[in-house]
Amino acid sequence: MAALSSLPMLNMDSSYGVDKLTYEIFSILENKFLFGYGDPNSKISNPEKPHNLISSTNGGGGSSNGKVRILSIDGGGATDGLLAADSLSRLEASLREKSGNPNAAIADYFDVVAGSGAGGVLAAMLFTRGRDGGPLFTAEAALKFMAKNRRKIFRSSPAGFFRRVLMPAAGRAEKLFGKVFGELSLRDTLKSVLIPCYDLATGAPFLFSRADAFEMDGYDFKMRDVCAATSADPTTAGAFEMKSVDQRTKILAVDGGIAMNNPTAAAITHVLNNKQEFPLCNGVEDLLVVSLGNGESEFGAGDVTSSPATARLLRIAGEGASDLVDQAVSMAFGECRASNYIRIQGNGIIAKNYGGSEKAKMSNKKMDMLKETENMLSQKNVESVLFSGKRIVGSSNIEKIDLFASELVKEQERRKTSILPMVALKQMSPSPRTSSATTLSSLSSN
């Protein structure tokens, strides 16, 4: 009551308006608790100083110094990562067309990537350095990889009975990740990478972070283990036991979706509290954020004996949490959310009839699921509205992706003539720092 009583008394009949009042109340709350701002002089933490509005000169609100570009990818969802993979493939194609560079990669146009579960696997493939110095996978290659191997990675996907018994999903996934990443570790990533899991040993989230891998002993992990950890299904094969490269940190990991199925808020917090790597980023108006969902499951659909009830509940809980994060982040962006934040998610609900009848197995063939993701991308884009849930906007998901690709290319071109560096990622020289990633990681160290 004390905090609310300190707000100025307003005449509800005045031109101030209830909408502006509720917006300012939420701004005070989210600035203090969601992103941890504490500077009273910051324009984002002071409601007396409004967000910069969209301008025709820089394509959106924010500082003339530019924007930090964040990519966030949800856990598997109803499509086991295929919706996000398809979105990334279309985004990369649009970036190549708009930039005129046929070899442009997703990693070239983002400064930070956060991925959970299937999203973590995609993040690792697109942002881990290959032998030629570029990413291991193009977005199109990553889509093909996920479509071909999702049955090996995710227990929820159909597979023959004897195959599941003789070689559990966890074993197949670990072997697959070993072939893809070999001995590469978090230090071999191109940009700032954040991939969560849940550590059963400490009962706390653990965030694999490129910055922590460079700066602290015991926090560099093999990418094959990171992928196995963030996609480990606790309802079937159990937790995945892993150690850091130097053997100093031990983790008993399960699915990152349990910790944060939608890691967008974690990525934003990481950037805003990391002034060494992102020195010119002062608030959400200095960000360009792309958040990719993976569809929503239908609760109780299909043969109840074919999928453990616990697994279904975990999936539904993760998807619900993703929507809450989307709503909170959309509120945090306030007036600049239309230009600085995009959320791609399937509007419809997919019934996942995994296992069971032959008809159910046939309905989940690779091509059928890819067609389903194409339908989702052709749907009208859904936008979170301040204190009003969601609304369908005029543009489709594909059109929104194409529009945001233009903003990413503009920022890339702006940096070619910029004097001040928007991003200064850590390399091999460690230095003490406290960041959001470090805070989460420290909860799980041994």
UniProtKB/TrEMBL annotation:
Disordered, as annotated region: 426-446
Keyword field: Hydrolase, Lipid degradation, Lipid metabolism
Pfam hit, one: Patatin
Alphabetical list of SUPFAM superfamilies matching this protein: FabD/lysophospholipase-like
Compositional bias annotation for Low complexity: 429-446
GO biological process, one term: lipid catabolic process
Segments carrying motif DGA/G: 255-257
EC class of the enzyme, as a word: hydrolase
Single GO MF annotation: hydrolase activity
EC number: 3.1.1.-
Domain PNPLA: 72-268
Gene3D superfamilies documented for this protein: Cytosolic phospholipase A2 catalytic domain
InterPro entries: Acyl_Trfase/lysoPLipase, PNPLA_dom
Superkingdom per UniProt: Eukaryota
Biological role: Lipolytic acyl hydrolase (LAH).
UniProt similarity note: Belongs to the patatin family.
UniProt comment concerning the protein's domains: The nitrogen atoms of the two glycine residues in the GGXR motif define the oxyanion hole, and stabilize the oxyanion that forms during the nucleophilic attack by the catalytic serine during substrate cleavage.
UniProt xrefs under PANTHER family: OS03G0784100 PROTEIN, PATATIN-LIKE PROTEIN 6
Protein name listed in UniProt: Patatin
